[in-house]
Design goal:
With 241 residues, the protein is of the alpha/beta class. The chain has a single domain, classed as Rossmann fold (3-Layer(aba) Sandwich), CATH 3.40.50.1360. 35% of the residues lie in helices and 17% in strands. It contains eight helices and ten strands. The protein has a seven-stranded parallel beta sheet, sandwiched between helices. The protein has a three-stranded antiparallel beta sheet with strand order 4-8-7. A hairpin with a 4-residue loop joins strand 7 and strand 8.
Length: 241
């Protein structure tokens, strides 16, 4: 199997392995820069990773946190990506508010996408048209091969100019705010954390099927990301050649 794939025994082992590599990448970045930026996604498996990270000794005060995408709900809602990370990682570590650059899902989606993009530009000191160089960016994969909040047949998958946008996920009947492809692809290290038997057929089609990001958006970031790793459990990986 391709060296960018790591297959672990179960969901918990995959989450721990991903967390350990995340820390390794942050340590490497902190040798070069004063801070190491990290962009997180939501989901149940990342919550396992967050809990593992919260138990590790690390210079977290030098890590600003961003989010890849967010559902348009309040921070206390059970569906909030930020809320999940806050409960499992940020609160246990007592991360300061100045380190947290969340997508404010309770705001109007279009306005929030503009505000979030401006916050990202300001943090990185970006010139017009430049993309944010996140040190670490975590992605998941839906059973429909979406990642971030970029779904199949979504024209935004071709957008390499913007940083963030609002999107209506028709299959979920909900609005989201998400980073756009150009911002995701500019990350120094991208990793996918994917587990579960329900992902096995999709994962096989993504990895071994025809390249078509319009149908399988996750393929874009797997094939074009600068440095990409996959952390899988056996259930998800069982059909891979």
């Amino acid at each position: 199997m391709d060296s960018r794939f790591r297959v672990l025994a179960d969901e918990d082992a995959a989450a721990r392995a991903a967390g350990d590599d995340l820390l390794s990448c942050l340590r490497s970045a902190l040798k070069l820069r004063d801070v190491a930026s990290c962009a997180l996604s939501g989901g149940s498996t990342p919550t396992l990773m967050f809990r593992h990270l919260a138990a590790q000794g690390f210079a977290w005060d030098r890590v600003p946190f961003f989010w890849v995408d967010e559902r348009c709900v309040g921070p206390d809602d059970a569906d909030s990506n930020y809320g999940a990370a806050k409960a499992a990682l940020l609160d246990p570590l007592r991360v300061g508010t100045k380190q947290v650059h969340r997508i404010e899902g309770e705001r109007e989606p279009v306005d929030e996408a503009d505000r979030y993009a401006s916050e990202v530009r300001e943090f990185f000191g970006l010139q017009a048209g430049a993309m944010p160089p996140f040190d670490v960016l975590q992605l998941g994969m839906g059973a429909d091969a979406h990642t971030a909040s970029l779904f199949p047949q979504e024209p935004l998958i071709e957008n390499r100019e913007g940083i963030a946008t609002s999107v209506y996920a028709a299959s979920r009947s909900s609005y989201r705010v998400t980073l756009l492809p150009g911002a995701i692809l500019s990350a120094r290290w991208i990793f996918f954390l994917v587990t579960g038997d329900d992902k096995r057929s999709t994962l096989k089609s993504v990895v071994e099927g025809k390249y078509d990001p319009s149908i399988r958006p996750v393929q874009l970031f797997d094939r074009e990301g600068k440095d990409v790793a996959w952390f899988l459990d056996r259930a998800a990986a069982q059909d891979l050649t």
